[in-house]
Each structure stands twice: as structure tokens, then as C-alpha cells.
Amino acid sequence: MLPNLSEAVATSRQAIAKTESYDLIVIGAGITGAGIARESARLGWKTLLLEQGDLASGTSNFSSKMVHGGLRYLIQGNWRLTREAAQARESLLQRWPDLVKPLPYYYLQNERSLITRFKLTAGLWLYHTLAAAEDAHRPRYLSPAALAEHFPALSFPTGTAASRYYDAICDDSALVLRTLQEAVNYGAQLSHYASVSELLTEGDRIAGVTVRLDQSQYTLPAKMVINATGVWADQFTSLPANLRLRPLRGSHLLFAAADLPLPAALTLQHPEDGRVVFCYPWAGGSVLGTTDLDHLADKCQPTQMSQEEQNYLLALLPQLGLKRSIKPIACWSGLRPVLAEQGDSQAPSQASREHLIWQQPGLVNITGGKLTTFASMAEEALAMAEQQGNLPPRSPQADTPLRPDKPSQAACPAGPLDAEALRYWSGAGAIERLSDLLLRRTRQGLILGRQLEPLQSQIEQLCQPLAWSSARWQQEWAHYWREFEHNHGCHDSLDASAKRSA
Ligand SMILES: Cc1cc2nc3c(=O)[nH]c(=O)nc-3n(C[C@H](O)[C@H](O)[C@H](O)COP(=O)(O)OP(=O)(O)OC[C@H]3O[C@@H](n4cnc5c(N)ncnc54)[C@H](O)[C@@H]3O)c2cc1C
Fold this sequence. Notes:
Bound molecules: flavin-adenine dinucleotide
CATH class of the largest domain: Alpha Beta
Distance between the termini: 55 Å
Number of helices: 15
Shape: globular
CATH architecture of the largest domain: 2-Layer Sandwich
CATH superfamily of the largest domain: D-Amino Acid Oxidase, subunit A, domain 2
Largest sheet: 10 strands, mixed
Number of strands: 18
Structural class: alpha+beta
């Protein structure tokens, strides 16, 4: 059975108010912090995880949601990262089959380009072999006729063939939530809407944190602190010499499946710059993404997709041969914590996606990396923390993956208003704001977009466990739409195909 996150947060907050002390405090409830908290609690250390916003409200909510080896890293010659990520993908597929699903990808190419075909065939075989993936998923070439059979609703330019390979897809927020549920199961405490304002120092070492929660401030001692705040990891301490965090923004568009029906993923090369962009089924809709550019705005403000990014992605639609012009339902933009040397001006898509771990007495910092490789990143960060010698000896519990009793408890169900899921998560999902429920515990807000507007009273009925007054509902509803518009509202522009015919 999955633990109830509402109860876990309530108990943890009581402990915080008593200013209990901890073996380890982890800052940041994205996938990196969640993975560290889970492993730390499993190893027997008294662990507290603190998150300033909602659970999984940072980059881990705005990724492409692929659990993948990163074909791109192979193309860049980074075999080690590809092998590590591809093996992590295989292990996640086995651990949580309800959350991480294999997905066929069709890499589009022109049938006359024999060099491309040769290079892709060799690369995909290597990709398959490095992952030690199952035989049924070995790569295959498809002629234009065979490709057309797989995508009957699309009409590709004449001569478009494909190479098929397999990767996996998940819901990033769901991955964080399940990891947190496992952390709680091993005894971890956690609180969201709890912002760490300062690190405590004792002589030359970090000895805990100061946290703001419910308009109070608490000082919590800890033997070790791990800073897993992603793109914001430089807020407490600077990076090792000559390195800086370079926030790269990536944006995605979400379409209704009826407008863009996809039985599998497409790997496309953008006509403007040759970058690889994916178009894939997710949460009952179809996603097109991602862009990849330097984020020059304030990274502490919510991230928005620009008009140029939207136009860039929409310019791909003509390659799919849709019969009519379509409009996205929603979009999202995330910031990738990429490490760069001072003065480095490498193209965003060429910049390394490796993670970085650095330390000082009492503190380990970790940033960068991938959703897919979170488990090995957690082990690495904890090994460094343990080496400092402050933590008690390990007393590990067996590593037991948790699975839900009912599909509605699998985080983030798709499709139209899912009554059971809304009921379950409104009671057990540690909901503080309506947007926590509609945008991150379930994806109802994304997949329904503006169609959610007339459903307010139905949602109120289903979410009775929240026990909100009608004034609170009005307030939450208004807040929800502000957040939706800001983080997920698309620009009001014609799509590329419509522009051309206008
Ligand atoms: C566009 C895009 C697409 C991507 N696609 C993929 C993909 O398909 N597959 C893949 O494997 N990887 C992908 N990635 C990479 C992956 O999403 C990230 O590496 C990963 O989500 C980072 O997780 P994190 O926990 O380190 O950071 P975050 O998820 O950002 O978590 C950090 C958390 O720290 C919190 N925080 C910050 N300051 C404080 C404070 N003072 N007190 C308390 N909490 C604080 C933040 O609120 C945040 O929730 C993608 C990234 C981007 C941007």
C-alpha cells in the first residue's frame, strides 16, 4: 500500500515545530532530492526533506518525461553517460512498470539518404547493445510504406522512411511522488512549502538549516545537509572554481490526441537548425518538444515559453502532413541546470548534461544530470556525505519498490475528469493548493486545458477530503487559473501551417 503523503507531511511538520535534529537534511523535492531522501532513509539515517514550493514543482515537473539513454549523448561520443542512462532506464522499467513504460520511437529520414540510414542503423544497434535491452526492442528500418501503416493519421513527405528504436516514457512528477512515498515508507520526514532561508554554521562546518514554514522560522540541526536545489543550487554556496550554472530553457507544446493522433513517438530533425525534436504520446495527449536555449530572465520567477519557441515548434507540424491546422491545449517550460565553464559559449544542445557534486564540511551539493539517472546520483551524493564521517553507521532495509493497489493511485492519471484519482489525491496527496492537485498530482489541468473551466462544482464535489470552505474554493480556483495561464497558457498565434496558407 502507498503511504498517505498528507499524513506524512502533517507528522513531519510537528517534528519540525519541535526543532528535532536530523542525521541528514535534504533541500529540494525534485527527483534528485527525492532520490537522496529515499536512499538515506533506507540506509537507516534520520532524514528530513524540505521543499520551498509544491512537491515536484521545479524542473522535475517540466521535463520531456523520457526515461532514456540519451541517443544524443551517443551522437556526441559520450558512451559512458549513454550506457549509464540506458541501464538506469532498464532498471526503472522493471522497478515501476506502472509508471515507466517502453515507447517505440520512429527516427524519420529520407529513404534516399543511404549514409544517414547506415549511420543511424549502426548508432541504434550500439544504443540497444549498451543498454543490454530486451531482444524484442532491437532497432528496425521501416520503408515509407511500412511507416505510413504505423501512423495512419499522418501523411509524411514522399520518401520518408524511419528507423525504429525503443526508449521509455513516464510522468516526471509521478516519478518524484512515488520516490517520496518510498522515502516515507522507509521513515523519511518531509515538508513542502518549507523554504530553507539559510544554512547554519558551527565553526567552519555546516550544521543544519533555518527553514520558514507556516509563517514561522525554525532552526534545525543536522549532521549533514545535502543541497539538491537543481538550477538554484548556487543560492547557498558558489560552484567549484571556474564553473557556473547555465540555465537552459526547454519548452513543450501539448495537443489533444484527437488533433494529433500518435501511436508512438517520432524523432524529427528541425528544418531550421537540424536539432532533434520529439513528438510523442503522453497523458492522453501528444507532446511536441523541446526547445533548448539560454534562459536570460530571472530564474527565480516562474518560467514561460516565448512566442519564438512556440513558433519554432509549430514549424514542425507541416512535416507531419496534418490535414487541418491545430492549436495546442497547454505548454510548459523547464530550466535545465547545465554546468559551464566561465565564458563558455558552446551551443545549448552541445552543452554537457553531466551532474556535478561538490562539498564542504557538513554540506554536499548536487546539481545537473537527468531524471533517468537519479538513483545513481543519489548513491554518489550519499557516499560523499558518508565519507565526511559525521553520519552514524548504516542499518539498511531491503530495497522494496512500492506499487499502487488501484490505477487511480498511480500518480498523474490521464484522460477526462478522473473521479477516483481526484478523490484519492485530494485526501492522500498533501494538497495545499488546487494547482498541486490539478497540475502535479493528476494532470487533469493540463490535459483538459480551458475545458476544465465549467467543471468547478464537479471538482469541488469530488474533492471533499480537502474540506475547503466555499470562500477558499473561490480563492483556489482564481489562483489555479493564474498559475495555469502563467505556466501553461500558450501564445495566441496561428500555427505555422495556418500562417502559410493565410
Ligand atoms: C526541458 C527539459 C527536458 C528534460 N527532459 C528530460 C528527459 O526527458 N529525461 C531525463 O532524464 N531528464 C530530462 N531533463 C533533465 C531533468 O528534468 C532534470 O535533470 C531533473 O528534473 C532535475 O531535478 P532536480 O531535483 O535536480 O531539480 P528540480 O526538479 O528543479 O528540484 C529542485 C527543487 O529545489 C527546490 N528549492 C530551491 N530552493 C529551495 C530552498 N531554498 N528551500 C527549499 N527548496 C528549494 C525547488 O523548488 C525545486 O523543487 C530535462 C530537463 C529540461 C529542462
